[in-house]
Amino acid sequence: MKGNKSVKLPTQQLIPVVGLIIGLLFLLKGIKDYGFWNSTTHTPTAGFFPIIIAVALCLLSVLAFFQSIKKEKVEYTLRNWYVPFGFVLFIAAIYIIGTVPSTILFIIAWVKGYEKMSWKTTIICVIFCLIIVIPIFTMWLGIPFPVGKIGELILGY
Amino acid sequence: MENFAMLFHGFGVVFTPTNIGACLLGSILGLIVGAMPGIGSLAGVALLLPLTYKFDPTTAIIMLGALYYSNMYGGAFSAILLNIPGDSPAVMTAVDGYPMATVKKRPGQALMTANASSCIGGIIGMLILVILGPALAEIGLKFGYAEMMVLLLVAMTSIGWLVGGNPVQGVLLTFIGILVASIGMDVQTGSPRYDFGNIYLLGGVEFIPFVIGTVGFAQLMQLMDEKDIKVKSVDMKLTIRGSMLTAHDYKRLLGPSVRAGLMGTFVGVLPGAGATSAAFLGYAMQKAFKSEEPLGTGAIEGIAASESANNAAAAGSFAPLLALGIPGSGTGAVLLGGLMMWGLNPGPLLFTNDPDFAWGLIASLFVSNIFALAISLGVIPMLLRILQVPIKLLIPVVMVVCFVGAYASTYSMFGVMIMLIAGVCGYVFDKNGYSTAPMLLAFVLAPLLEDNMRKAFIRTAGDISDVFFGSAIATVLTLVLIFICAFPVVRTILIKTGKYTPKKKG
Fold first, then answer.
1. What is the pLDDT of residues B156-185, one digit of tens each?
2. ∠B298-B303-B306 over CA atoms, to 5°?
3. Which residues span the domain enclosing A34?
4. How many angstroms away from the CA of B447 is the closest CA of chain A?
5. Total domains in the fold of chain A
6. Of B407, B423, B458, which is closest to A43 when you measure between CB atoms?
7. Residues A83, A72: one domain?
8. Between chain A and chain B, how many beta carbons pairs sit less than 8 Å apart?
9. For labeling, which of B20, B246, B305, B438 is most exposed (least CB within 10 Å)?
């Protein structure tokens, strides 16, 4: 199967560590920039709520970390990451050639190029996606999708 | 009786061409999304949320309610014909549905059993909702800032506790969800907060891109593992006439459907329990009653109990959502986020201040129940073709939907970036056994919690004991909260000290 390469990562331990970092970031910024309690008016300030949650998150992250110490590394397979990688390329194409051409190219590249499906299936998928983008979102909902650098040049934006 | 009079008023709201159209569209889309293995109601509702921009709030939520509700019908299709539940609430349907379709060669009747019992369960759930919703709202009116604050804390932590295997993981994501929601503007003063110097963060993290990423995009990454799996479906031609049940079949399904419907509704009302737990409990409850054939061998009673319970729970979950503003599940959180996006504030005053909306939504559930039943019957001959759409084609198409949905909510690529980051994080969380439903719920409820918390502390001038123990309601809720928070800590300590060994699953 394509994209079967995998790597094991200690994300069971990493998630609590990231949780702790986020908690500390919100805690320190909250104390420094927004404060916790206004002792003159006896009212909570903008940092009151996030600081409480940040403290709780730090404590819970420590607990989660100790719970995760003995857990095994998690296996990540390359093919799962084709989705975000493909999506980034799709966005990059939108910046250059705009939404509609990028959608057509993306579907052809994925369905015909990667999945090796027939042209008939590929064209059906392209038409389905274009129905979503053009009549539903652009015409009915009025969403001005990016036309890309080339589109801007042609349209004189 | 007054409630039922208001329900008829609600039907008046629903029976406009636009609302009926939205209800029908929601029912069709819900059935399709529910039937497709791998998408699920949460991702389905999230992905289709941007489609409602064009509608007014009542029409929009009628469509989403119909979508969520008919999803429960659709989930059973693939469970019965492919042995792959379209959504988690249909897991127990497959246990008897697939053997009935393949071993007993009665696929059409298995589908009809699921449809009929879903309809019965749904009607029971909705009738209880009509009575329970306003009653809950009445109780909610007695809640002050402190009571509401503790209730929200209980709802958030209990979902983190109930969803997924590890309470610590659930609550950890709850806190992360709250902190992400606190980015943007201070809820009371409107001053910028935690924007980290980024102009795009001044408005906060947008709900739609966040939710599309966390559930929709993350789901696509997971589906890459399943895209090449060949599924074996039943090899019989399905016709509507050939799917009809006999009078004896109806007699068999009625009892389990009514029992499971009643039980499922109350499970649906509980935060975190949801339609999946209801289906499991409904099936387990049926084991205590007599079935004509043993459960697990293709018994009508098994399909009826699980399907009736999950539909009833879906209806029941609207009671706390509308009356208290507290969703019972991740999908409920997305619906609540949608409501807030359109400027509606679910809570005790909704039934009084906005009866058109509240009763219109409840009435629309009855209508979507009928639509879903009719469409379910109508699509039976085409069902095998619909279910055989390969996952490998679904992935790039849904990726395009993720893009247009995220872009449409912000009119900028920033929303698309938020969606992508949330999607990758959601996938990593799922991969490590963290359920993202508590994070979504916390994200939606955080502004309400903060507002109530700050007002409660202002009212008591910072007296903590007055906030948490100032009234009988607050005291009871605080004790529940302490239990929920202390349980995972005590459990961990007991496991570490060897005084308790958790039972292994399976």
1. 877 766 665 678 888 899 999 999 999 998
2. 140
3. 7-76
4. 10
5. 2
6. B458
7. no
8. 174
9. B246
